[in-house]
Amino acid sequence: MKKIKLLTIPLLISFMVFLSSCKNESLTTTKGTVYTTIYPLYSITKLIAGQNITVEKLVKDGAEIHSFEPSSRDIAKITSAKAVIYLGLVDEWVKKPLEGTKVKIFRASEGIGFVDNDPHIWTSPRLLKKIARNIENFLTSLDPKNKSYYQENASKLIASLDKLDKEFSSVVKNSKRKEFLIAHPSFGYLARDYSLKQYSITGVNEEEEPSAQKMKEIVQLIKEKNIKYILVDPNENLPAVKTIAKDTGVKIVNIYGMGIVNSSQAKNETILSLMEKNLKAFEMVLK
Ligand SMILES: [Zn+2]
Predict the structure, then answer these.
(1) What is the mean pLDDT of residues 217-233?
(2) Which of 10-19, 57-66, 163-172 is predicted with the least confidence, judged by mean pLDDT?
(3) Quick one: which of 11, 98, 149, 186 has the fewest CB in 10 Å?
(4) Cα of 90 to ligand 1 centre, how many Å?
(5) Dist. CA 84–CA 96, nearest whole Å
(6) Distance between CA 69 and CA 74 in Å, rounded?
(7) Which domains are delineated in the chain?
(8) What is the distance in A from the centroid of ligand 1 to the CA of 152?
(9) 212: phi then psi, degrees, rounded to nearest 5
(10) CA of 123 to the centre of ligand 1 (A)
(11) Which pLDDT tens digit goes with each residue over 236-270?
């Protein structure tokens, strides 16, 4: 017994030191930080905040937004942060831990209505412009003396989104096909805004495998509409896609819905560069 006790004391002490160092680290490193929940908000906020504000995201690289749950470490980070920006619908989990704290919380989808429980508003360049203005206004409210800096960054971003919007319109106008098939339906708002029809394999909030009946319907649809391509986010793993491709001969084309973003994308891309890749993908599948 004595031996055990002697061993546990230093262990306990080192554990307590470890705990207090964790606590200090999260408090000192997140104090001035603006946290975002999902990658699209992270990327937009970073583009507008520039060098002025430290921006972080909660949903980790490689994690999927629809099933994400924050860890206790995530909660410790946000409850000591300066502010938190969330989208709504897909990341409501961020609200409860912030109740009663001084952390400012902002819903970036303000003024945008969600349709049919579909959270993917960031894949439409037109809605992205609105999100960007919302975030610009929020960052200005946090740091009013740098108003013109945020305004300038947001205007640059919006100019790029205007260009992207025009390019999407022209791709659709010059394409024969007005529908597309996608594994996970993250482009419903883009479809709505550019008068396209989105067909998908999974539901809007999950990545589950389709039923045998649904598989039959998709194969039928491909034949009926003579569909040549299926849009797939390479970060998503959906074995049914490979089966459909094998059975029907449709070719897989990469698309980036940003529901899962890997670490290389998080580091080297922005929402703009990913949307430019998406434009090329649509150009190909709508041809
Ligand atoms: Zn999604």
Answers:
(1) 97
(2) 10-19
(3) 11
(4) 9
(5) 12
(6) 9
(7) 30-166 (3.40.50.1980), 175-286 (3.40.50.1980)
(8) 31
(9) -60, -40
(10) 10
(11) 988 999 999 999 999 999 999 999 999 999 999 99
Record the tokens describing residue 230, joined without a space: 């299926």
Distance (Å) from CA 190 to ligand 1 centroid: 13
pLDDT tens, residue by residue, 89-117: 999 999 999 999 999 999 999 999 999 99
Taking the centre of ligand 1 as the mean of its atom positions, its distance from the CA of residue 236, in whole angstroms, is 10
CA of 21 to the centre of ligand 1 (A): 36
pLDDT score recorded for residue 7: 46
| Å from CA of 14 to ligand 1 middle | 43
Separation of CA 260 and ligand 1 centre (Å): 8
Ligand 1 mean position, distance from CA 206 (Å): 7
For residue 278, how far is its CA from the centre of ligand 1 (angstroms)? 15
Distance 61 CA to ligand 1 centre (A): 15
Q: What's the 19 CA to ligand 1 centre distance in angstroms? A: 36
Distance, CA of 181 to CA of 253 (rounded, Å)? 10
State in Å: Cα 257 to ligand 1 middle: 7
3-state SS string for the chain: CHHHHHHHHHHHHHHHHHHHHHHHHHHHHHCCCEEECCHHHHHHHHHHHCCCCCEEECCCCCCCHHHCCCCHHHHHHHHCCCEEEECCCCCHHHHHHHCCCCCEEEECCCCCCCECCECCHHHCHHHHHHHHHHHHHHHHHHCHHHHHHHHHHHHHHHHHHHHHHHHHHHHHHCCCCCEEEECCCCCHHHHHHCCCEEEECCCCCCCCCCCHHHHHHHHHHHHHCCCCEEEECCCCCCHHHHHHHHHHCCEEEECCCCCCCCHHHHHHCCHHHHHHHHHHHHHHHHC
Interatomic CA distance for residues 236 and 122, integer angstroms: 18
